[in-house]
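Much of our argument rests on the idea that a fold can be written as discrete symbols. Part of our work consisted of pairing the sequence of a single chain with a tokenised description of its backbone. The amino acid sequence and the backbone structure tokens for this protein are reproduced below.
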Amino acid sequence: MLEYSEIKERKVIIFNNEPCEVLESHVARTQQRKPQNQVKLKSLITGRTYNTTFQSSDSAEEAAIDKKEIKFLYHNKGEFWFADPKDPSKRFKLEAILIGDLAKYLKENTLVTAMTFEQDDDEERIIKIILPIKVEFKVKEAPPAVKGNTAQGGNKVAILENGTSVSVPLFINEGDVIMINTTTGEYSERVSK
């Protein structure tokens, strides 16, 4: 059990009988009132967000979350197919709503971390996918650099092998392999030419 002040960002608690990730928390202490924690939660099952307040007498159950590695295989018509890396025959699909914006950084045969939650019926359910912080992509299209064109900060828009557009420095060319930070969606470094 977590005390009201221990309910902080990145913790996963049980709220309304489902695991919810704490997105924001603010412990407020005023002179006339007892301290309280104002929290914004996101359900890891439905995606719904809640704004709630925990009083100093409240506590919350920390969700029993497990993590395991899974391998991304391919994407087809809104379905994302994964497999157990130790046994590729154990394939399963995850819905696009669970993947969300991370879809543009998923690359075939990449190992990702799956957060799992065991429900009341003892069935393990994947509730969130965590990508590696940096992923390599090949640049499919990059406009040529124009000499003296630094008015935009020396960047241009390149298209990656998976169709995602990203802002890159002027020296990046078609065919280069670059690293993308999956948390910010920004160019990180050039791996090879």
Notes: The chain has three domains: 2-60, 65-130, 134-192.
